[in-house]
Design brief:
Largest sheet: 5 strands, antiparallel
Number of domains: 1
Order of helices and strands: HEEEEEEEE
Radius of gyration: 28 Å
Helix content: 25-40%
Number of helices: 1
Strand order of the largest sheet: 1-2-3-4-5
């Protein structure tokens, strides 16, 4: 005699399982959406807090070593912000005798990248060395020779996106004064 088994699911059990699975998927989808939004917000805030540090890291030494600004563009390509000429000093870690060598040109430009703009620092030479200082600019930059006194003081005004502010931007100034004696400049 064969015994008949009733393996499987009934229609009500299957419907309950589908409803529970749907609720779980909605919850997972909401968590993923929230994590993407949080990631985007954190990335924007990180860029806003990192930008002043990165600009200061490069702008201040460039301004301090500047033997003079150049009004025209340099080798950077893009929209000209500032170009400095300065003596190229040997590194403290270099075996060569420290001291000034040839003059170098440092070009600060705004370069488009898709729908965004970047602040790029280029050390001109046979092979220009490019550094992206700020990867997402909010508004056009302003670089000025803030004082006509000696030593000259160079100020760079930068704006980066910041959704926490009413105007949508975090704006800051970075300033540096030339420490190069014009008499000893190459």
């Amino acid at each position: 005699m064969t015994r008949r088994t009733e393996d499987g699911f009934t229609l009500p059990e299957l419907l309950v399982a589908i409803i529970i699975l749907g609720i779980i998927m909605i919850a997972i989808g909401a968590m993923i959406t929230t994590s993407f939004q949080t990631s985007r917000t954190v990335s924007t805030q990180l860029q806003g807090s990192r930008a002043p540090k990165m600009v200061s890291r490069y702008w201040i030494p460039d301004a301090e070593q500047a033997s003079g600004p150049i009004d025209g563009g340099g080798c950077g390509g893009g929209t000209h912000v500032a170009t400095f000429t300065s003596p190229s000093y040997a590194s403290a870690f270099d075996d060569r005798t420290p001291g000034p060598s040839v003059a170098r040109t440092i070009d600060w430009t705004i370069v488009p990248r898709g729908s965004r703009f970047q602040l790029v620092r280029t050390v001109c030479g046979a092979t220009p060395a490019r550094t992206v200082v700020v990867s997402d600019l909010g508004q056009p930059l302003n670089a000025t020779n803030a004082s006509k006194s000696t030593p000259p003081r160079y100020v760079l005004t930068v704006a980066v996106p910041d959704s926490d502010r009413s105007d949508g931007f975090h704006t800051f100034d970075v300033a540096g004064s030339s420490q190069v004696d014009p008499e000893s400049a190459p």
